[in-house]
Structure formats: structure tokens, C-alpha cells
Amino acid sequence: MFKFLKSILKRSAPKFVYSNKYWVNIGNHVFPVEKYRLIYENLIKKGIKRKYIITPNPANEEDILLVHTPKYVKKLKTGSLSSREIMTLELPYSKELMYFAWLFVGGTIETFKLALKEGVAIHVGGGFHHAFPDHGEGFCILNDIAIGLRKLKKENKIKKGMVIDCDVHQGNGTAFIFSKESDIFTFSIHQMDNYPAEKQKSDIDIGLWSGDGDWEYLEALKKFIPKIYTDFNPDLIVYLAGADPYEKDQLGGLKLSKKGLQERDKIVIENALKLKIPVAILLAGGYAFDVKNTVEIHLNTINLAIKLFRKYT
Ligand SMILES: [Zn+2]
């Protein structure tokens, strides 16, 4: 009887950070803004109770300025980016888009705090790793990862953090921001012959090539994980679980299967939890020809995270 009760009580879930304001009209665009809502609806359908879903507030300016320059923030707020800057950003500027960016940063900060408290937390959003202190790039306005980590450091909630960036595109903004900070370890596994043309230097970069599939990817990943976890021993791991290394992605040339991506998730998340290192999961990119595939890949990551949360925390 006791065992039975315990198994019911154990049907808890990690916290999800999501807002029904995670949507903005960007017209006909390759960036699938609707994926956030689709994932949320699936979570509710799956039976995740609403008490596990946390609604974030937009980040405040003080937090944004931990990473971004006052000049850039002012341009964002006043709508005075040059046409060249908007071209680099690859998103149409609007006030609503700024709210969207600010809200995602708030969501990532919340996710990091929840992960530290509970072992695992999932942001149904976030992962804007191409944003630099003084400009945005490739759909990324504000670098939520860097802002969140700097904030945790400032508040003495962590001493050391690690970013495991498995989006198909190199985490150039994040690598640049932390290039001189030895207490934040940046790891990026990405496709070399893809955006961004000019790569930045992470602590570890694994560059794969167009056409590389599950085997090449997973073998490369296993060379470093869990070794870097034990060597660096971070207080928090931030996992960018990009869905764009998928074989049918419009913006990716790697050929990972859905099964291969699940194996990737398992290596990153389970090894951390085995070592009792909290994991904050951010979705990052995903541009499959059919958005259903992007949503399914993100949900696979989430399902695994729930399972591992129940097993290890
Ligand atoms: Zn990407």
C-alpha cells in the first residue's frame, strides 16, 4: 500500500515555463512562432497539470544590461535600429516583437531558478544564442542564456555554469559573451558549413559537416559528455535542445533522425542528473518543413526530461 501511494505521489513533473504571450506576428517567416503554443497544448493534452506551468514576466532592464550595451537596448526600445541591423537580425521590427524578446528572457531566468531548486526545469521557449552584446543576429534579439547566467552569478546562486548548445547552428553570441569568463563553460556541437559564417570560439566546439548523421554526432558528443561535467563540475547546466539537427530541417544540413536526437537528449540530461547537476532546458531552433516534426522533437526532449526528473530527483 505504501509503495502504491509513493508511486502516485511520485507522478510529479518538472516545472514548465510558458506564457500564452509567446506569440508575435512576424508574417510569412521560416521561424515557426506557433511551435510554443503547439507544444503547450500537447503538454495539457498529455495531462500535465497547470500547477506545473509557470508564467514568466518580461525581464527588467537591469538584467538585460548585464549583457547588452545601453546603446543597443535603447535602439531596441525606441525602434531605431538601422535597416542593416534589422537585416542581420532577420526579423521584422515591431514593438510586439520587443515584448516577445523581453518576455523570453524573463522565462529563461525563471527556468534557471527553478532548475536550481528542483533539479530540472523546462522553458517552452528560449535559447537565443546568436545575440551579441551590441547587436542581434539570426532571429536572436537578446541573449537570454547569457543574461540568465550572469544574473545567477550576480545573485550568488551559482559559481560556475555550463552551456551545452546542441542547436545545429553554432552558439556564436554566447561563446563571444563568455570568452573571457572562466566560470562559464561553453560547449557547442554544430554544423560547420552553416550559419553563422564566422564562428566564435567556445570552450569546446565540435564542428560536423553537412550530411553527418546519428553516428558521427553521438560519437562526438560521447567523447566529451560526461567528461566535461566531472572535470568542470558546474552548478547548473543549460541545455539548448535545438530541433534543427533533424534530417528534414530547412535550415540544417545534418541528418539526425528523431531517434538519434532522443539519444542526444539522453546523453546530455541523464549524465547531468546522475552527477546531481541541475539542468535547465531551452528549446532553441527548429525549422522542419512540417512544423509537426519540430514540435514532436521538442516533445520527445520534454518527455525524456519528465522521465529522468522522476527517476533522479
Ligand atoms: Zn539553430
Number of helices: 12
- Unreliable spans are none
Instruction: Output the CATH topology.
Output: Arginase, Chain A
- What would the principal axes of the Cα set say about the shape? globular
Strand content: 5-15%
What is the name of the CATH class? Answer: Alpha Beta
- In CATH, the architecture is 3-Layer(aba) Sandwich
**Strand line-up of the largest beta sheet:** 2-1-3-8-7-4-5-6
Major pleated sheet: 8 strands, parallel
Rg from alpha-carbon coordinates: 18 Å
Assign the structural class, choosing from mainly alpha, mainly beta, alpha/beta, alpha+beta, or little secondary structure. alpha/beta
Total individual domains = 1
* Ligand catalogue: zinc ion
The residue-averaged pLDDT reads 96
Short description:
The protein is an alpha/beta fold. It has one domain (39-312): Histone deacetylase domain (Arginase, Chain A, 3-Layer(aba) Sandwich), CATH 3.40.800. Helices cover 43% and strands 12% of the residues.
Describe this structure in words.
The protein has 313 residues and is α/β, with parallel strands linked by helices. It has a single domain, classed as Histone deacetylase domain (Arginase, Chain A). It is built from twelve helices and eight strands. The protein has an eight-stranded parallel beta sheet with strand order 2-1-3-8-7-4-5-6, sandwiched between helices. Strand 7 (236-240), helix 11 and strand 8 (279-282) form a beta-alpha-beta unit. Helix 2 packs across helix 12 (291-312), helix 6 (95-118) crosses helix 7 (144-154) and helix 9 (214-224) runs parallel beside helix 11 (258-274). The protein is globular and about 50 Å long. The two termini are 22 Å apart. The mean pLDDT is 96. Zinc ion binds at residues 167-169, 242, 244, 285.
